[in-house]
Each structure stands twice: as C-alpha cells, then as structure tokens.
Amino acid sequence: MSSATDLEHGRRVITEEAKALQLLADSLGDEFANALEAILNLKGRLIVTGMGKSGHVGNKIAATLASTGQPSFFVHPGEASHGDLGMIGRDDGLLALSNSGETSELSDVLAHAKRLGIPLITVTGRPQSTMSRMADHPLVLPNAPEACPNGLAPTSSTTMAMALGDALAVALMHRRMFAAEDFFKLHPGGRLGLKFITVGSLMHDGDDLPRVHSNDSLDQVLLEITSKTLGCTLVMEDDKCQGIITDGDLRRHLNPKLFEKFARDIMTTDPIWVHQDEPAARALGLMQERGITLVLVKDDGPEPIGLLHIHDCLRAGLG
C-alpha cells in the first residue's frame, strides 16, 4: 500500500469527523442551554460517568471541567456498583455518556441519580434511548457516520462527545467570567502555569528594597547594595525615586576619584520599568533583550513599589 493511499485514508477520517462536528454545532439548541443552567445551579460537583470509549471521553471532560472552574470528577460505572456510588451526593449532578444510550453497566449509577433526585444530563446518539428518556437534560449527538470504514469503531461519535464536553466547559467559563488568573490558580505547575506568574508575585518590596539618598557617599551606596544583595539600590530624594545605581554603574564609573562622588553623580536616571500585573515571562524577555539584570516595578502610581531581578524569574522556572 502506498503512502499516498495512507494519506488519503487519514484525510478522509479527519474530513468525516469535521463534518460531524459541524452537524453537532448546528444541532445545539435549548437542551444545551438548559443543561448549562442546571450545572451552574449545582451546589456540589458534576459527576461524569461512561463505559468503554465513552468512559475515556468522560474522563477527559471531567478533567477539563475541573480545570476551568467547575468541580467535577469521573466515576467508573463498574466501581460505582461496588461502593463508589457513595461519591455521588444530593448536591451533585450526573453527566452520563453512552452513544447507544443502552449501556447496561450504567444502570446502577443512573438509578442512584434518580433516587437522589439530582440533575441527570445524558449524551447519547439516540433520542429515544433509555438514557435519553430518563434524563432531565438529554443531549443528543447528530446522526453522523463513524469515520471507521466498517462503521463500527467509535470515531466520529467520540469526537463529537469530546467536543460537546469542551463546549459545556467553555460556555461555563463565559458564564462565570473565569479569567486567565483563575485558570493559573488551578494550574500552578508546568509550563502552562508559568505563563501566568506575574511580576508582582516575584518582586522584592518593602524593607527588602535597597534605598539611598541622592546626597549619600559611595561608601553608603556600597554598604546598601551589599546588605540587600540585589546588586543595586534606588536613589531617593524627598521620598521620590530619582534613579537607580547598579553594579554595572559602579563599574562604568570606576576610577581613582570614584569615592569622591555622590549617589546622584553615578545613578541611572531612566531605568526600565514594568507593571506589577505584567507576566513575569514578559519582564524576563525584556531584561534579556536589553542585556540588564533587573527592572523597577510600579503600580498605577509614580513611584516604584518593587524590584524584579532576573534571578527571581529563573528561580521560578521561567526562561
């Protein structure tokens, strides 16, 4: 078999699944909105369940919901029948997936949901299936052919179910105004979380900030820089920042008359500033671009509120 034929088969599968997704998008209506409202009104969690391929999809849906602000977890229907039904409480809701809508392994968990009287949302491929009839909010996938050449392996159907779960999660995010900052709080680890670390969360402030007066001698400047270990000091006058002195400034002015000078004589008067709410990764990029090791941090006022050193970014895992 040629590689051209392989490509043809691969493209056909993706094309078929894309068509199925468009059918799904066109089919969304009141039941989707009603299911969304039921989830928003939950006092507890949204429990997701499914068997086989639907179970794998359900696991992913539960993980996506949990990471975007909707408390959720997956319960395997087999384990539910052997004690895990206790994980489902009266304040919870149930989202059950089965393409046929007749999966016998789901019967115990569905019956438990009905006994508790909690909202039951189903995702099936058949509007007249047992599960769809039991549901408070039946979500029915459109009748799209599986991309499998035999029409048997779950392909288009699982893709649609996965996309429907994403649609619920993202719609919930919009309703809850779930922002990037909220997302970071639930993703503090890994590269994704690092994108949302702010300058303000890493900066040095308060008593950690080195400060000298513009009339201070170089002896005093060196003492302050050494004691605060940031390799710099702010230069103040009348409680206002006039500039900054860094190790680099000291080296550039190194000559026999250096210690005859005052802080104002060697300070940099136009240091680089960043806002405390900026991503620290952006501040790191700026320092690397300018070939500097620190930046002043401000809020909405005129005076610096902190200092960010390049080492702070690197210790946090940036770069």
CATH domain topology of the largest domain: Rossmann fold
Order of helices and strands: HHEHEHEHEHEHHHHEHEEHHEHEEH
Number of domains: 2
Oligomer: single chain
**Low-confidence stretches at least 5 residues in length (pLDDT < 50)?**
none
Number of helices: 15
The CATH superfamily label of the largest domain reads Glucose-6-phosphate isomerase like protein, domain 1
- What is the CATH architecture annotation of the largest domain? 3-Layer(aba) Sandwich
Largest sheet: 5 strands, parallel
Which of globular, elongated, flat, extended, rod-shaped describes the shape? elongated
Average residue pLDDT: 91
SS-based structural class? alpha/beta
Number of E-type strands: 11
How far do the termini sit from each other?
46 Å
Q: What portion of residues is helical?
A: 40-55%
CATH class of the largest domain: Alpha Beta
